[in-house]
Amino acid sequence: MELNLTNHTKIRDVKxxxxxxxxxxxxxxxxxxxxxxxxxxxxxxxLNDVSVRLNETGFYFDPSSSVAEFELRLRAEHGxxxxxxxxxxxxxxxxxxTDNLSLKKQNEMGRRYALPLRFNINAxxx
Length: 126
Hints:
By secondary structure, this protein is of the alpha+beta class. The chain has one domain (about 1-125). The protein has 3 helices and 5 strands, in the order E-H-E-E-H-E-E-H. It has helices at about 10-20, 65-80, 105-115; strands at about 1-5, 25-30, 60, 80-90, 90-95. The strands form 2 sheets. Strands 2-4-5 form a 3-stranded antiparallel sheet. The longest helix has 12 residues, at about 65-80. The mean pLDDT is about 90.
């Protein structure tokens, strides 16, 4: 899988690319690095305004990569600080507690928890 990262790419475009692969995950971009990351960046921000180390060769990754590996590689190779969030019902949860799980597994978990509850209303009145 590949994310197209150029100086003229906006954050919203990268988020859309990522969501096409993983519809139950989302990326958020932050100013700063490491655990002390700063403010969330706006979707209309160009990548070259965020990183002076942007490598325009594209970012190739495997869905079996862990979330932690994915985030670390984006920072190391492109100077981009991102966090992956997983869908949980109507919320987006940061995956910090489960960063060791693969992107594919996280997406499957999001799909499972994003599905609406189905029940038989007649069974409620026994």
